[in-house]
Amino acid sequence: MPFTASSSAAQSSDSLAEDTSPIIWGDTAELEPDRIYAVLTYRGDLASWNWTFYVPNSSVSPIGSSGTLFHVVNNVSDPNASGTNWKFAAETKDILSSPLVVAIVRLGDVGFLGEYKDVVGQDSLLPILNTVAIPKVGSAIHPAEFSSRVWFLDAICILHECGVITCDDVWLLERELRRFAFTAMDRYLQNKGHGRAIRADRRRCQEKVFLSGVNEGLSL
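The structure assignment produced for this chain is given below.
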């Protein structure tokens, strides 16, 4: 299903009713179908994570045990080589059982783009996310200038421009994602990677964009 920005118009009628469902901890919780999630994974640092997007395949149970992970990786084939080798990647992953997943946060509903294969395919999210700029191979890029977090936030802006999600303040979204990940790290370290946080609650937000339900005008 080819994507157009106007496809998201149907989302405007989504309910803004108060939803105070709790954070769900543990390995048995499953994700919701037709959603796009932010997934932050452990990288050996208490205050820094790998930032990725994830769309679960709702035909595989439990939902989240299979789906497409969109992210950038820095592959350096030669450890003595200078510069960077950032690449965009889209791969099938089970994030529910992954020991590296720290936090999973719902960003919005992408069901209007079609079935799962349409959402993650060549006519939808894949080409959109593939347009997010990454450094050229061998570029001398300081970590402060580019990282998976920088790529993720740039991608949020492009997804907003394309009408996939609505996020008027990407820096506020980043702050809230960081806050949630910091909270999740305590439980992650206690359980040694077995049990991560899935943000399930939604609260009404008129002017600010926070964690979950960004596409629906809802917030943490």
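Interim note for the steering committee: Confidence is low (pLDDT under 50) at residues 1-28, 200-220. Residues 85 and 137 are 5 Å apart (CA to CA).
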